[in-house]
TrEMBL record:
SUPFAM superfamilies: alpha/beta-Hydrolases (SSF53474). The keyword Zinc-finger does not apply. Residues 51-110 form the Partial AB-hydrolase lipase domain. This is Lipase. It comes from Medicago truncatula (Barrel medic). Belongs to the AB hydrolase superfamily. Lipase family. Keywords: Hydrolase, Lipid degradation, Lipid metabolism, Signal.
Length: 415
């Protein structure tokens, strides 16, 4: 997605367009979605709206990145039915990182017994849920206003360079320098893989779980994904006047309508077209999803993901003009992220689905074949779930049984 991100945002954008304007049998949720976008109740924060209502403790924290972004991060320090013990055993911290165009709220669409952060908390972990720059709760900056162009001059490269390291440093400091587990979905897997390849936080991480892993995107099966990626590159320059990829902005709406108008595209169910046939989403959780998502990201980030889709290689952002690349990178083309540099001894769990249209099976196989052949065999655990698609990993009703329990036991393993 673009849940990975790209797709997420485009998918949902398309949903809106389709539901609101293309398709007269508008779904009830489209109204809610459109009506809620600016709901000021959002300023309460994720703890209040999604966590404490279920009886869990929750703390709101702020992390400041080296490039000045002020991120909100929630902490669930313990499980719901924790019996106050007098043994002060330190809990192991876990970072739970969402994908692109969504925020931490996507983890809380199901009941406490079904959602990943609460399952981890109930299993004795100290859980941290960051929200990426630009999303609802993370729009502050030390000097820039989120309405300024400069605020949006980043892609996932900056998440690798500045954002995830800041989050690791913060959680490490707050938890007495303990090693940290990391679980990411979609773009949260891409940033993890690229970070590890660049040597970021390799000494701070204890183990890593990647759900719907994204690195190579070239096999993305959705026609729509391909078209979106291509259109974004060819028509994208017209979007460059704006920097925030906000689905409500007129140029973005026009762009999506243009894609929607391509012959042969089924715009009736774009969410499925983009994320795959999710087997196991609960309708009320999905309704909740469209109430809280999508969240804005930057146009540059969408471009970067689109470049990854089109080129089939994992590189830093391509500024497209040789002199600009040279100015940024001291070379004419953007440097690659060489995932073969991921340390072989980092414990990694991956789970991918046979119906995932974004984290395509062929792309995941390529990732494994090209970069994980020499990984320590007992530190790599790969799960394949035939009927799972992209969103099932975030809020499938049975993700607790199929996936999250495996993540939890992987994190509990002694290496
Ligand atoms: C710790 O808790 C146990 C029971 O859980 C109790 O027997 C013991 O006295 C407690 N110790 C202290 C120092 O409070
Ligand atoms: C990536 O790194 C591996 C091992 O470090 C090396 O053998 C390979 O040539 C590198 N690939 C590229 C494209 O630089
Ligand atoms: C996931 O959990 C199931 C059930 O506990 C188990 O059979 C399976 O081997 C696990 N898979 C992985 C990759 O850990």
């Amino acid at each position: 997605m673009i849940f990975l991100g790209l797709m997420n945002i485009v998918a949902l954008t398309l949903c809106i367009i389709v539901l609101a304007t293309c398709n007269h049998q508008a779904h009830a949720s489209s109204h809610v979605f459109l009506g809620k976008k600016n709901d000021k109740s959002s300023v309460e924060g994720l703890c209040a709206s999604a966590v404490t209502i279920h009886g869990y403790k929750c703390e709101e924290h702020e992390v400041i990145t080296k490039d000045g972004y002020i991120l909100s991060i929630q902490r669930i320090p313990e499980g719901r039915s924790e019996v106050k013990s007098n043994v002060t055993k330190k809990k192991e911290p876990v970072i739970v990182q969402h994908g692109v165009a969504v925020d931490g709220a996507t983890w809380f669409l199901n009941s406490p017994k079904q959602n990943l952060p609460m399952i981890l908390a109930d299993n004795g972990f100290d859980v941290w849920i960051p929200n990426t720059r630009g999303t609802k709760f993370s729009r502050k900056h030390t000097s820039l206003d989120s309405s300024s162009k400069k605020y949006w001059e980043w892609s996932w490269d900056e998440l690798v360079t500045y954002e995830t390291p800041a989050i690791f440093d913060f959680v490490s400091k707050q938890t007495g320098g303990q090693k940290i587990h990391y679980v990411g979905h979609s773009m949260g897997t891409l940033t993890a893989l690229a970070s590890l390849a660049e040597g970021k936080w390799v000494n701070q991480v204890k183990s890593v779980a990647l759900l719907s892993p994204i690195a190579y995107l070239s096999q993305m099966r959705t026609i729509l994904g391909q078209v979106a990626a291509r259109s974004l590159l060819s028509e994208g320059y017209t979007l460059l006047g704006i920097s925030e990829f906000d689905v409500k902005a007129t140029p973005i709406v026009d762009f999506i309508k243009g894609i929607c108008a391509q012959p042969g595209l089924n715009c009736n169910d774009l969410f499925t077209a983009l994320t795959g046939e999710n087997c196991c989403l609960d309708p009320s959780a999905f309704n909740q999803f469209v109430k809280v998502e999508p969240q804005p990201t930057s146009v540059r980030n969408m471009f970067h993901l689109a470049q990854n889709v089109r080129n089939g290689v994992l590189t830093k952002f391509d500024f497209m003009l040789p002199h600009l690349n040279f100015w940024h990178y001291r070379r004419l083309t953007p440097p690659i992220y060489n995932l073969s540099n991921i340390p072989k001894n980092v414990p990694i769990f991956m789970s991918y689905g046979g119906s995932d249209a974004l984290s395509d099976v062929a792309d995941v196989k390529r990732l494994l074949n090209e970069h994980f052949q020499n990984h320590d065999a007992n530190k790599l655990s790969v799960q394949f779930i035939e009927n799972y698609a992209h969103a099932d990993y975030m809020f499938g009703v049975n993700a607790n049984d199929l996936v999250y329990n495996n993540v939890t036991s992987f994190f509990k393993r002694k290496w």
